[in-house]
Every structure is written in C-alpha cells, then in structure tokens.
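Exercise 7.
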Amino acid sequence: IAFELEADRMRNLSLIPAEFAKELEVVKEERRMRTDDDPQALTYERFTAFAYAASPYRNPVIGWAGDLNDLTVDDLRDWYRQWYAPNNATLVVVGDVDAEAVFDLARKHFGPLKAEQVASAKQRPEPDQLGEKRLTVKAPAKEPYLIMGYKTTILGQPDTEDWEPYALEMLSSVLDGGGSTRLQRELVRGSQVAAEAGASYSAFTRLPGLLMLDGTPAQGHDLADLERALGAQIQRLKDEPVGTAELTRIRTGLIANKVYELDSVYGQAMQIGTLEAVGLGWPLLDQYVQHLGAITPEQIQAVARKYLTSDNLTVALLDPQPMSGDAPTHAAKKGAVPHVR
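Solution. The predicted structure, written as tokens, is:
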C-alpha cells in the first residue's frame, strides 16, 4: 500500500490553485513564526546568507519572504514535474523484509513512471574567504546571541585528507558532546560566562559547510566576553592536544550515540538515505565508528590549526532591540552589544 501511494504521489499530484493559495498562506505564517518572530532563528538566517558567497547554503530552505510572495502554482507545477521523478529518487526500505519482494514491488509501482531529464547539479565552489567577516542583526529580543562559524571541509572533497572530517566531528564533540564536555563544564558551569553555549559540525553534507559555535552570555557578561571565551577554547585546541582520558570519554559517548541511532529502523533509513543522497554511499554507515575510533589527539589539533582560523571565520551578533512595550533595563558594558533583559 505504501509503495502504491508513494508512486501515485510521485507523478500524479493534483495542484489545485485554490488549495495552493491556501497552503501558501500557511507556509508564510510558518516563516513568520519560526524565523521572523524568532530572533535567534532570524540571526542564523542572516548569518548563513552572509557567511557564504556562492554556496546555495546561503539561501533559506523555506525561502525569503519575497520568494513566497512571488510563488505561483505554475512555478510549483514545473518544479514538481522536473524533480519528483523516479530517476531522481532514492528508495530506502529498512526492516524484516524479503529483499527480492521489495525490488519486485519497486519495479511494479515505480518502474512504469515517466522519467525526467535531470541534469547533474553544477558545483558552485565557495571562494576563499580572505578574512574574518562580522555581521550585526538588530531585532526585538530579550537576550543577545552570538554565532561563530568556521568554513571547513566534508567527506569526499578534493584536497582533504580522509581523516579530517572525522577529526572535525571529534573536535566538535570535545567542545559540546554532553554535560561533561568543555563548553558546558568550563563556560556554563565553570566561569559562568555563558547561559548556554554549543558547537556543531556535520561531515555528511553535499557541499562543505561550517563548524559552528553559538551561545548566549550569562547575566553580568556580554557578547564580547562570550566571544573571547569561545575563542579561547578554540585556541586551546590549537595549542595542546586533547588528553587521552578526555578523548576516550568523548569518543565513547559519540560512538555510543551513533550506535544507538541505529536501534530504530527510522534512524537506519535516514542515515542510509542521507549517505546515498549526498553521494557518499550507504556502505560508509558500517565504517563510521571505525573511522572515529582511529582519530588521534594530534589529528584533532591539526584540523583546529588548519580550519579554525580567523580567515575562515564569520561572526554574527544579535543586538537586542526593545520588545513591544519594553525598554532597555540597564546599560551594557562600554563597547559591547547592549543587553535588553
């Protein structure tokens, strides 16, 4: 039944103008709620648009407000016809199934569907950044917010050692891989310069992305304090290798999380589908833990020195403006982004 429904939906969708107009208003409202009225999400959207010069990652998935205002049902129909085709799809089935029976169902339901001429996507390499970039976003908010993003590499990129993306994943987990990792232990609970702080990186994307840090300063501190504290954590990774005991603990937790993700058929399907969709291939799933296990402290230090440089850095600051009916309650430290509490 699922195959029959999805095959029908792949090629035979009815795009009724009245229904399209109704749903478009829903999407516009979703954008207003999730981005325009969420100061951190708004800052992140402007940050990515500013950080990338050529990469399509600079465009929000939901579209800019102007994109939605200009969208027509004919635009949607053309897009659907071009891309929702069997030769542009990856079908993943996970569970206690008979593989041959699955292939038979696929041939029966998807085999007769009309293919489209889908050209290979042209790569748009991101140019070298050539220097730190800084952005200030002014928006109504109660708290300031900071994002720092370093341009990095991913699996399968030229001029990238095979181990580097795995080292970057380990580096990110050293900073933010649980309650006992450095940002939580030293910035949130230790110096208490941050009310919250995090780090993220993904090796499994179609195009190179960013290793990102973000956070909100704690009461009595400002964005400049938080940026210095995060920068000090990055410098520490460059100056000294991660200790053996710390790395063992981080590695164990990271590998355990990856293994636990495979406990659900949904998790398995998502990981297999992602690897296939970005061109890395599903067999990598069985090699991932092995690659993480081989990363050394010296390799983590090496990628920190190579990629986490000021020339690769983009910084976005949320400068809180008074909320409706509110006003700033105290003056910020001289030279810092003003707080609105």
